[in-house]
Write a structure and sequence with these properties.
The complex is a heterodimer of chains A (357) and B (268).
Chain A: H1 12-41, H2 49-57, H3 63-96, H4 109-122, E1 127-130, E2 136-139, H5 142-166, H6 171-194, H7 198-207, H8 217-236, H9 238-245, H10 248-253, H11 258-280, H12 286-298, H13 302-327, H14 335-352
Antiparallel strand pairs in A: 1-2
Helix pairs in contact in A: 1-3, 1-13, 2-3, 3-8, 3-11, 3-12, 3-13, 4-5, 4-6, 4-11, 5-6, 5-11, 8-11, 12-13
Chain B: E1 3-12, E2 15-25, E3 30-34, H1 41-48, E4 56-61, E5 64-65, H2 71-77, E6 78-81, H3 92-97, H4 110-122, H5 138-151, E7 156-160, H6 168-184, E8 188-192, H7 196-202, E9 205-210, E10 213-218, H8 225-232, E11 236-241, E12 244-249, H9 260-267
Parallel strand pairs in B: 3-8, 3-9, 6-7, 7-8
Antiparallel strand pairs in B: 1-2, 1-4, 4-5, 9-10, 11-12
Classes of the chains: A mainly alpha (357), B alpha/beta (268).
């Protein structure tokens, strides 16, 4: 059949609606940039915004410039990359598993990645404790740690996909499987601790609370190399997620290879979770909270929800880290503690409020 | 488009569901697939949709074998309207726009949006276009889902029980609407149905399935009391009301357990 579009009114109402969404995304992006600059400015010594901008435009050897570019920039960048990555993983998992409670953390994927990383560090000797920089663990072989974390995450993901395919993908079932997986892998990590040196135990325990201040420039680069193409792929397949949201059968009749899209989405989500956990530790709830906040504001259309969630994830993690840096200054609280305080109540609210399940 | 199905067989876990199904539908015709529950009506629809791969047989759409085409190619040739899709807080306009998915490259173009608007105007559902589909009634949602299928610009429409969740007025409205669309756009439509009388009013061709096989196929003339009794296992009479045949259970319905009459007898 062919549709004649020659005699037609423009769908003004709809075009206005689309423009509003576009403006919202631009506004949110602007907020993220602003917060990014503010995050570079605040800390144990305050650096005025003009000086922050100047440090970027003409890097000098001065102290302010060094603090901004060498100390705060890696931290702020990893918060944005990890926040955006975790949020994207959450929104995509929620779509392909058709389950609003999905996120790397609530389904146990983060814990599994942490186990994999802990395994690489303790059993394979990929990391050691450095006493030079306080409370920091030096990962000697970031690739090995990331690969092991990815295998851990994939193990959990495979379990989730199998249960969803052959048993039930009902939200309650998936969450319970997630709880079981989290418990299992946490036990595994504890098991590793039992055979570790005191230093290693201290590192692992500290590491279970994620902190964005750990990443070095090379870690950051590896994170970027994994997260950015994944986000690109997610955004490229946004119409497929929209189709899957409309039901598997509908998606198929629209030419979507549902199984393949679902598996690839889960795979990339696990990969994102794995790199973030390997370098920063477990940061919970960002992947759950950001999509839900944005769904209220921009709706369920993945064309807007996906980028909006990424921006929200960046803003949330960056904001949480700023609070974590200032709340007990000059000491710095791991941001994972804060996101848990923020996210756990929301998670319970989502569980109780039946309307979202 | 002309659909030609031949020798189609499908097994599920070794169990025969469809056996040597054969039929043909012409352009501008609506085919109703009829038969009792669990006889394989939806399975047949899913095979044509290539969601399920038949174990034998061919499905030709204008001489093109659907089973040898890629997903996107199939999606550009035929559209499927599910019984009731997943509904979220998505605007009807966006829900219909999703039908352009097989034609979309990187993103929707102005032309896609204009086509959605064209179909919305043709179907007179402009008042629904900016409403979320999860706040719609069954009839409104069904129209949106049909609009989504049409904006796919297919030659063949498949509908799985399009009237099962609708009230009387909406049933008639949706089917009249569908017939208008099929005639106006020179489409072919296949639908599964439970209501024989509704099918008689709106379909051109009828296909009765029994135990996974075609029991009878053809135009309205093939529908006789004997056929219905054989397929559904229920005695019926066929009366004529306003020139339309109407299938009524009976004449010996009083002997069926649980009919109002026998209940009345028991209470006396």
């Amino acid at each position: 059949m062919h549709l004649d579009v020659s005699t037609l009114h423009e769908p003004e109402g709809y075009l206005r609606y689309v423009r509003r969404k576009g403006l919202f995304l631009i506004g949110a992006g602007f907020c993220l940039v602003l917060l990014f600059l503010v995050a570079l400015a605040v800390g144990s010594s305050f650096i005025p915004l003009p000086e922050v901008v100047a440090a970027f435009l003409s890097p000098s050897g001065e102290q302010a410039s060094t603090i901004v570019l060498n100390i705060r920039l890696p931290r702020v960048l990893s918060a944005v990359i990890a926040g955006a990555g975790l949020a994207a993983a959450g929104v995509v998992m929620q779509s392909v598993l058709r389950n609003p409670l999905s996120s790397p953390y609530t389904l146990g994927v983060s814990h599994a990645a942490a186990f994999g990383a802990a395994f690489a560090i303790t059993a394979l000797g990929a990391g050691s404790i450095s006493h030079l920089i306080s409370d920091s663990m030096v990962v000697r072989n970031p690739y090995l740690v990331t690969i092991c974390a990815f295998f851990g995450a994939m193990l959990a993901t495979a379990g989730l996909l199998l249960v969803a395919k052959y048993r039930s993908s009902r939200p309650e079932v998936m969450i319970l499987v997630g709880v079981a997986l989290a418990a299992l892998f946490t036990a595994g990590t504890t098991f590793l601790q039992y055979f570790s040196s005191a230093d290693q135990i201290a590192a692992i325990v500290f590491w279970t609370f994620g902190d964005v201040g750990r990443a070095t420039w090379s870690d950051l680069l590896l994170m970027l190399v994994v997260v950015l193409p994944s986000l690109g792929y997610f955004f490229f397949t946004r119409w497929d997620y929209n189709a899957i949201d409309a039901g598997d059968e509908t998606a198929h009749s629209l030419g979507v290879n549902v199984e393949q899209v679902r598996t690839l989405a889960m795979l990339l989500s696990s990969l994102i979770t794995a790199v973030v956990v390997s370098f920063l530790g477990i940061i919970g709830f960002i992947g759950l909270v950001s999509p839900h906040m944005m769904r209220r504001l921009v709706g369920c259309d993945q064309r807007y929800l996906l980028p909006a969630s990424c921006i929200a994830g960046g803003i949330l993690l960056l904001g949480a880290d700023m609070v974590a840096r200032l709340i007990i200054a000059p000491a710095v609280l791991p941001v994972g503690v804060l996101t848990a305080f923020l996210g756990a109540p929301l998670f319970i609210y989502l569980l109780i409020g039946r309307n979202v399940i | 488009m002309i659909l030609d199905v031949a020798g189609l067989s499908f097994r599920y876990n070794g169990l025969k569901v469809l056996e040597d199904v054969e039929f043909r539908v012409n352009r501008q015709e609506i085919l109703a697939i009829l038969g009792p529950n669990g006889v394989g009506k939806t399975t047949l629809l899913r095979c044509i949709n290539t969601l399920l791969r038949p174990h034998a047989g061919s499905i030709l759409l204008d001489e093109q074998d659907l089973l040898s085409l890629g997903r996107d190619e199939v999606a550009r040739l035929l559209a499927y309207v599910p019984q009731r899709g997943e509904t979220g807080p998505i605007l009807a306009f966006d829900a219909i726009l999703l039908g352009r998915r097989p034609h979309i490259g990187w993103d929707v173009r102005r032309e896609d949006i204009r086509k959605v608007q064209a179909i919305i105007e043709q179907l007179h559902i402009g008042h629904l276009s900016l409403r979320p589909i999860n706040s719609m009634s069954g009839g409104e949602l069904q129209k949106v889902l049909i609009a989504r299928a049409l904006v796919q610009e297919p030659g063949l429409l498949l509908l799985d029980e399009p009237t099962s969740s609708l009230d009387l007025k909406n049933q008639v409205e949706i089917l009249a609407f569908l017939r208008m669309v099929v005639r106006a756009h020179s489409l072919t439509a296949i639908l599964t149905m439970h209501d024989i009388n509704l099918a008689i009013r709106f379909a051109d061709q009828f296909l009765f399935l029994k135990e996974g096989m075609v029991y009878a196929a053809g135009t309205r003339e093939i529908i006789t009391p004997e056929l219905i009794r054989e397929v559904y296992g229920l005695p019926v009479t066929i009366a004529e009301v306003n020139g339309m045949p109407v299938v009524v259970p009976g004449p010996d319905q009083l002997h069926l357990p649980g009919t109002p009459h026998s209940l009345h007898d028991e209470t006396v």
